Amino acid sequence: GGGAGVWTPRSLSCSTSPGSTVVALVPPASPTPLLLAQLAGELGSFPGILNVISGPASLGPVLASQPAIQKVAFCGALEEGRVLRRSLAGKCVELGLALGMESLLLLTDTADVDSAVEGVVDAAWSDRGPGGLRLLIQESVWDEVMRRLQERMGRLRSGRGLDGAVDMGTRGAAACDLAQRFVHEAQSQGAQVFQAGDVPPERPFYPPTLVFNLPPASPCAQAEVPWPVVVASPFRTAKEALAVANGTPRGGSASVWSERLGQALELGYGLRMGTVWINAHGLRDPSVPTGGCKESGCSWHGGPDGLYEYLRPSGTPTQVSCLSKNMNYDTFGLTVPSTLPAGPEIGPSPAPPYGLFVGGRFQAPGARSSRPIQDSSGNLHGYVAEGGAKDIRGAVEAAHQAAPGWAGQSPGARAGLLWALAAALERRKSTLASRLERQGVELKAAEAEVELSARRLRAWGARAQAQGHTLQVSGLRGPVLRLREPLGVLAVVCPDEWPLLAFVSLLAPALACGNTVVMVPSAACPLLALEVCQDIATLFPAGLANVVTGDQDHLTRCLALHQDVQALWYFGSAQVLFVLFCHIQHLTLPTGSSFSGNSPALLEFLLLRGETP
Amino acid sequence: MSAHNRGTELDLSWISKIQVNQPAVLRRAEQIQARRTVKKEWQAAWLLKAVTFIDLTTLSGDDTPSNIQRLCYKAKYPIREDLLKALNMHDKDITTAAVCVYPARVCDAVKALKAAGCSIPVASVATGFPAGQTHLKTRLEEIRLAVEDGATEIDVVINRSLVLTGQWEGSDFIKTSTGKETVNATFPVAIVMLRAIRDFFWKTGNKVGFKPAGGIRSAKDSLAWLSLVKEELGDEWLKPELFRIGASTLLSDIERQVSNLYLWSKLTGVFEKGIEKPN
Hints:
Chain A: InterPro entries: Ald_DH/histidinol_DH (IPR016161), Ald_DH_C (IPR016163), Ald_DH_N (IPR016162), Aldehyde_DH_dom (IPR015590). The complex is a heterodimer. Chain A is of the alpha/beta class.
């Protein structure tokens, strides 16, 4: 299908190989993509495979909103990424973001300092590194590192890029101005600045710069460091290093320098970054995927993951745009529509209202009210809690408390719990089937649904065993370890249909991969989900799975705007989806396709993160 | 020769704190060789400078006074006179840094150099070269005799058994190896040695020299070595007092390359006015 994007030449090749055609928007300062397009044009047989437009970044949203564009990949600054994200709301266009160019270098006292200094040069003061560098140096080697750094800076040469004897060239007047502004800011906030090297004094050339003694509380310490600046800060222990390193919204790439294996790995695992190099910086290989996390984006380049960004499973239905002009996005889901009291109960004895299932037990909702659930003949089936924003916050908090323990469980333990739940469901088949019958499902079909739910749990349990870290051998000197880590807390809004099967089919993969969940079950019949919760209460650790019932739109809004939910799976109306897109301005996770009412077997997911509007 | 290394107290804790990251050093070695290429008239200048660092060496079993004499003559006139004239370098006193011979041949070397009117030093290998596995008494006697015969520099083979048991000695120069091993002067090893020299200088103020030897045969190699020393230690160390290259066939390859550069320049008209003296 068609593609578009703002790309670097490296990623251009990734996108054309699986059979897409490409339109690339590149900044006017870089002629290389145009050369590449010219070469591609000379191939002759397929004109129009690669098209390049040279223009400002403001054209990005214009390009992305053209019809027939199916995927947009964006590399650039955070703000522009946000603007693009907002402009693509509801348009069924896949978006991949690679934001920011800063990287991090963590230098411990057991590092080979000379080699680490060369790493700093590679990262920030050469033409190989994309952006600036945050340098964290262990206090005990601070003086030594500073001295070597400054001495090394003195030997750097800057000049025209094609001169073989220079270390770094220039990136244009804009980059020069950006660096200048940053350095002045830093100085005004009390930092010291050291500049050296053999650099031409004219404007687009900026000397290699080292900024240190910047107060940690100053705004510059949180801002992205531009090329060719290095901001150095000290740390005392490994724990402090991780806190400082993970303390910015960015999570692109980092390197750890230590000759002690244990320490290097501990720091490597602890860093919240897309790519971590150990005792090296900036090593790249086309078969090794690179990407970021947090604010640094959500797409992968290179390797099989990079390839999958441009592919879709065969048989995926084409998507329909879900733009709606009648929706008021500011008021969507803001208040809960009032419900009339239910009619008299028919049946044996009034069942007590279900509470919310949060933190491993049933509890009353904050609003202290319930909503009636009707069966297929219109009679009262039961009462469920009316959950609200406060309950959502409580559920997310409970899920976060359970998350580290669950993520730390071995895949075998996770599989065991899922299998235990499957067995419990089978034991309660008759109860569950009769509930389904009351909702109008035939007995045979109801029993089949229960069996299928148990099978799904077992299947995902088996997958929990099989997944994990993989070791990749590439052209680089040394192995590449690819870690699959749980996202954290997932919020899931289930579809109306298949109240039992959908619930289980969405719960199982999230848990199998080490996440904890907050689920909003089927609005039509949440009772099935609450029945399953009775088994969950006895089998699972508290907070692993939390279920909140109530007005679906209101709860969806609460979840979408919650700051601490790592992902949201929404199965519902397409129009609501559009609203979610509009609300969410800060987007760092990949967007899959949106759809409504599809069978849960498809399981394409939509990952969003909320932010203060 | 530089002032003698006054030495310091042996501080083993300093050595145990040293960390070397081998893959990073290998990458740096590749980088220096690949990126810092010198061309045209600058290359000719660098090659002539490289000549002034050579310890012209002959260490074979069949060394006789006649080939020593030829060696010494070559040390005095390393590059053809007409070529030097064409480059306008004939009056710049370009000779090799020293000649390096076996102890028994020191006398012949001194005599030959005197006859040629050349004041460059004679260096002798000593102390049971190349294995170093002879008695301490004979090794000391070897040095004494070589110095008596007129050698002013001695390439000492350290007692490796002492090294492996942690008993260290000091020196004015460090040399990568005897040149008689299977693997001799490689860039990664050199990088580590040069960084150690720099650390020692920062800590004590003493400058120790560096000499790679063995396997340096082509002009291109010699340029890479000069580049390496310049990158890691700076121009201060690019002097015969602190940097030597132990080589024998290197000189002829440098001469060949300089001649090629000159012929090329004649074709293209570059540097007809000659080149400035390399400093």
